[in-house]
Amino acid sequence: MKLSILDQAPVSSGYSAKDALEATIELAIFADKLGYTRYWVAEHHDLNGLASPAPDILLGIIGSQTESIRIGSGAVLLPNYKPFNIAERYHVLATLYPDRVDIGLGRAPGGSAEVSIALVGNFLEQVKKMPELLDELQHFLHRDFPPEHLFSNVSAAPVPVIAPVPWLLGTSKKSAILAAEKGMPYVFGHFMSDQDGPSIVKTYCDNLKQGEPKVIVTVSVICAETTEEAEEIALSNLHWRVQQNKGEGKDGVPSIKEAHHYIFNDDEAAIIEKMKKKQIIGNPTEVKAKLEELQAAYQTDEMMIVTITHDYEARRKSYQLIAEAFDLENR
To answer: What CATH number corresponds to the domain at position 310?
Structure first.
């Protein structure tokens, strides 16, 4: 099984956005040494607690300080942009870091309605154009517009020797079918969806019009030396999710101590139990077994792990323990 990382650049309470971004860069360097396949950075806008509105800027730094790990967005929220602009940005990265660049693409707004207006104006109109936006971007990446097209002589320079690889991200059958129709590899957000993920991935595979299906499944994982320690570390993230549901948590991921001092009501306790069912929390042996179980359910050979903890060292250790459990360095 291949293992990859999705980093949302979380800001922890008591830390700054600068601390979070530096932790992201340091984790990417560490992941490269551990043998992870990809390191993708998410895009969010005006969300307190997440520090990455511009993945390509971070990827430029990460690429310069790593050697072999593939780098990419998870995801570029395409309705916010003109495809030509995205092609240019990721062509720069692919020129600097040949055969290492992915473009994960999504259609979510990544922030509030006001943020969408500030970014692009009528976001819903842009979402409706998602199939056309994907076509246009792929034409720019591969320089294959029809001769009669307005952009047939437009080049998203610099043009890399090896084009970045576009992936479509989603959590529904609609996104799976769109990826299949466009002949694109697909990433399913297991950690974000309440739907039947394996069925959605099968829909993608059954409807793919060209090429072999390529699927990554993204899952939330927290690993520690013992099960008890993992559950303790996970508590701060779960508490933060409860806060976010209430419009709170603006100081970032709370500490374990803060989480212990919070008294959850019955509804919040039920929400936490539901969230825990979507997460993998445990010691290395347990985490390995659960990841392999999930891999078998989805019939894919690559899992992408997102880990949010208050303590950045605990996050680093979690990824290290998982890498050691799967012996990634010796593959």
So the answer is: 3.20.20.30
Q: Are 188 and 176 in contact (CB under 8 A)?
A: yes
Q: Three-state SS for 253?
A: strand
- Our CA angle for 35, 313, 101, nearest 5°, is 35
Give the Cα separation of 149 and 32 in Å (integer).
41
In order along the chain (331 residues), what is the average pLDDT of each group of 10 residues? 97 97 98 98 94 98 98 97 98 98 96 92 93 98 96 97 98 97 97 96 95 97 98 95 88 94 91 93 98 98 97 98 96 80
This prediction's pTM: 0.97
Please tell me the total count of domains within the chain: 1
Residue 151 belongs to what domain range? 2-221+284-330
- CB neighbour list of residue 167: distance below 8 Å, 6 or more residues apart: 72, 75, 102, 103, 104, 105, 184, 185, 186, 187, 214, 216
Q: How many CB atoms lie within 10 A of CB 35?
A: 18
* 18: three-class secondary structure by DSSP: helix
Residue 190 is assigned to a structural domain of this protein: yes
